Amino acid sequence: MGILKHMSLTTFVAVVSLAWFLIGLLLGMRLRGGRRGSGSSGSSSGFSGAGGGRVNSAEIYVGGLADNTTEADIRKAFERFGQVKDVRVVNSRADGTNKVFAFITMGGVDQAQAAVDGMNGRDLDGSKVIVSEARSRRRRGRR
Hints:
Shape: globular
Structural class: alpha+beta
Order of helices and strands: HHEHEEHEEE
Number of domains: 1
Number of strands: 6
Radius of gyration: 16 Å
CATH topology: Alpha-Beta Plaits
CATH class: Alpha Beta
CATH superfamily: RRM (RNA recognition motif) domain
Strand content: 15-25%
Strand order of the largest sheet: 2-3-1-6
Helix content: 25-40%
């Protein structure tokens, strides 16, 4: 409990958000594992995990960013896949250092899909990034 005394509110929120994302990702993979190979050709609905399946939203999540990656670096890397409408970098510290992840709003679903397919697992400023469809709080189970 002593570690919480030394953690800023921003750091705490970032850590909890990342933990919820990872838990949701792991649960989603586990649930999909039982349906694999079922032969169903229906379209997927909802979040399909990092880099897999069809994107249903123009907003994407980018994790594993290097400390020195800026909003401009992210915008430049993703503009080759289409229009980047918005980039929101989430910092884990109040002083703005040690960036953890970002949310990017692309110009449309097809552009977001191209960005996920093209950037997931790729190097950005010396760090391998995880790119997937962003999930809303409701889809993560919050109300």
